[in-house]
Amino acid sequence: MSDHGSQEVENTHERVLDAHLDRYAQRTAGMTASEVRALFAVANRPEVVSLAGGMPNLAALPLDSLADEISRLIVEEGQQALQYGSAHGVPRLREQICEVMQLEGISAHADDVMVTVGSQMALDMVTRIFCDPGDVVLAEGPSYVGALGSFSAYQAEVVHVAMDDEGLNPDGLREAISKVRSAGKNIKFLYTIPNFHNPAGITLAVHRRAEILEICRHHGILVLEDNPYGLLGFDGQTYPALRSQDPDNVVYLGSFSKVFASGLRVGWVLAPHAVREKLVLAAESATLCPPTLNQMIVSRYLETHDWKGQIKTYQEQYRQRRDAMLGALEQHMPPGCDWTRPDGGFMVWMTAPEGVDTKAMLPRAVTQRVAYASGTGFYADGLGSRQMRLSFCYPTPERIQEGVRRLANTITDELDLVRTFGSVPQRPVSGPDAPSVDTA
Amino acid sequence: MSDHGSQEVENTHERVLDAHLDRYAQRTAGMTASEVRALFAVANRPEVVSLAGGMPNLAALPLDSLADEISRLIVEEGQQALQYGSAHGVPRLREQICEVMQLEGISAHADDVMVTVGSQMALDMVTRIFCDPGDVVLAEGPSYVGALGSFSAYQAEVVHVAMDDEGLNPDGLREAISKVRSAGKNIKFLYTIPNFHNPAGITLAVHRRAEILEICRHHGILVLEDNPYGLLGFDGQTYPALRSQDPDNVVYLGSFSKVFASGLRVGWVLAPHAVREKLVLAAESATLCPPTLNQMIVSRYLETHDWKGQIKTYQEQYRQRRDAMLGALEQHMPPGCDWTRPDGGFMVWMTAPEGVDTKAMLPRAVTQRVAYASGTGFYADGLGSRQMRLSFCYPTPERIQEGVRRLANTITDELDLVRTFGSVPQRPVSGPDAPSVDTA
């Protein structure tokens, strides 16, 4: 049977499975299940060390006192907590969010904050109000996979800007702007994660921040600053938010997912007033309002708990895990591997030696009972085949060390194959539906 | 100053207020704040009886035992409840949702259910995967204002189908289909609220349901069935869901907002398998996942509380309020007013006598200390100027009676003005930002 014939059979097959195939919107063409989903059903088995996910480790949360506080909330303010609220968000929480943002130098008014269902929803809403199909979003390469998903859902085109050890490269940014504009395309914003980048594990050097802002302002490009990890510097250090230096041209995204609890889905966006107004209108049609209960839980938590102490606990916990990972990488990885050394956040970004394809290698890694996120998912343009993201946020230090050891063996085996065959035999990955490759 | 000059001044003014004006996506053109927002800041004052909102009355909720249950949940399963979950939703809750849907004749598999942040998010996701700009959505006239907002956010065009006392009119539906198709436009789905319609207060006659489904199937049009009120029939009656009669061509939306608690924002969508897969991919880019805590609260509530008894309590409560409203309308309204007589749900739809413009009358009603939702907001095409939605869900029966009395006086005064001047002098409505005209 010719390739063409086999393609036809496949289409017919898909059509039989989905009677609605001709009805979908064009944007669904970009919505495809991750190729490695099937694999992650396997990767989630307890015997596999997963360095793939982005789940925070919540073991340190004071569940008993949280339970008491939430119980009091329901008894005392249940009629409000269980009722609809506004799309803008609970006023008291928006004030508290301004206090949280002050820790990174941001001075803001509560009216310019909108609460969202995690900062993922903020990403979605910002893209919704700014991006027409074909518009360009500039983003670091690599970039957060969830943001790439939002941009793709609105048919925006992502153009990556190179990073180096000091983060987003200003010259790379100028070059990208000029290239995109000469192609006659419309740049809507620069999406950037300045602190403890996901997945790169790099922080934008402080001395570059004003320059990046100046370039964007000069070229009339809005900055979308995503900062979920900013308070998780391992030495308690913080860096000045881009928003603190240019309030009129930066839309800022924050989240309680990493500094409190991800399952509440409470994030926020801080935007210039007129933009915030549009965001609230967009949010009304998206969810009516974020859950009132969750907002009031976060508000009470900030009022009654030592939330700064809790963040210190998280910093310490993630620092230990980062140390475990860097130590193990140093000890076990074969020559030719290179990785970033984050001073905060959740992730290390590793580059494997020439000849290794991290996506193709993943099934073999899972066979060796270790999982990671392969690099191509973090690029919109197919780059990243030699890269992988290693998360140290969730497993214990001992599990991290064991996982890295297994991964090193996998890579060593892979390199043997490369040396023997010149390349590594590949097999396709497919299978039933499974949890997402990447949460957060 | 000429009109043209004044328009220019206004644009310049807007540009000064919003430096980002040239950057927004085209879809934001349809996102405008309700003209009556400013008014609703006033309408929310305690001395005003609001018949405008769609907030459920939660007074009957057992807050103490809910507080205990939620406290237990945090202590026993806090690590899971406060952690990320899948975009698909908590498996146990999806099974329970299937049991809830059985009450309306639906037989479904938990895998085909996706949990959403209220059914508003389900509306948003369904529109996202089906509608390209310019696609047509058929909907009852009037229709749910939040759905119109979602359709507009994706630049879909709404074509209304006439209703009568038995709901959506099959001949009207055939006519609309033929008209839209002759205009060369692409119909993506029929959006319908068959039970206790918001805002119309009408239920689709059972004998019409098969016919409506047959028409849609014949013409290859998907049905989007929105059923937030289905279990709130005042005599405990239920009607067979459209989904129960045509599983392959109906996407079904449900919600716990009206039968449990709206502030949790837990709704769901039930869809044919391939559609559900696309919905999960869309939801991942929208919110990553719905809040795990809220899903587990609903799941525990269904397991440990007499939720069917609670629904009976709600039915009784809303029946009393409906009775109060219908009695007061009968007693106070001047001749020429006409209204629907709902046997379930939250709303009465009233038509005022010739000459009354309900949007223009609203400021005068608020002066008389009563508020309602004027009819034009429930149409995409400017109809509804003589109509208004009167919600009986939230105020007490006494307040409802008082509100209707005030409204009757307002209309009577309005008719006096019409008789004296031939029409009613109008003034523009504007002012600062205020809560949304309509929650739910």
Largest interface: A-B, 91 and 90 residues
Helix and strand element order of chain A: HHEHHEHEHEEHEHEHEHEHHHEEHEEEH
Read across the widest sheet of chain A, the strand sequence of neighbours is 2-9-8-7-6-3-4-5
Please estimate the helix content of chain A: 40-55%
Number of helices of chain A: 15
Structural class of chain A: alpha/beta
Query: Which value, in Å, is the CA radius of gyration of chain A?
Result: 22 Å
Please give the domain count of chain A.
2
Instruction: Choose one word for the global shape of chain A.
Output: globular
Keywords (chains A, B): Aminotransferase, Pyridoxal phosphate, Transferase
Cofactor (chains A, B): pyridoxal 5'-phosphate
Pfam families (chains A, B): Aminotran_1_2
Protein name (chains A, B): Aminotransferase class I/II-fold pyridoxal phosphate-dependent enzyme
Can you describe this structure?
The structure is a homodimer of 440-residue chains. Chain A is α/β, with parallel strands linked by helices. Chain A has two domains: 33-59 and 310-421, Aspartate Aminotransferase, domain 1; 84-304, Type I PLP-dependent aspartate aminotransferase-like (Major domain) (Aspartate Aminotransferase, domain 2, 3-Layer(aba) Sandwich). Helix content of chain A is 45%, strand content 14%. The first copy, chain A, has 15 helices and 14 strands. Chain A has helices spanning 3-17, 37-43, 63-81, 91-102, 118-130, 145-153, 170-182, 206-218, 242-245, 257-261, 273-287, 292-304, 307-332, 358-367, 397-421; strands at 49-50, 113-117, 136-141, 157-164, 167-168, 187-192, 222-226, 250-255, 266-270, 338-339, 347-351, 370-371, 373-374, 387-391. An eight-stranded mixed beta sheet of chain A has the order 2-9-8-7-6-3-4-5, sandwiched between helices. In chain A, a hairpin with a 7-residue loop joins β10 and β11 (347-351). In chain A, α3 packs across α12 (292-304). The radius of gyration of chain A is 22 Å and the shape is globular. Residues 1-11 and 428-440 of chain A have low confidence and may be disordered.
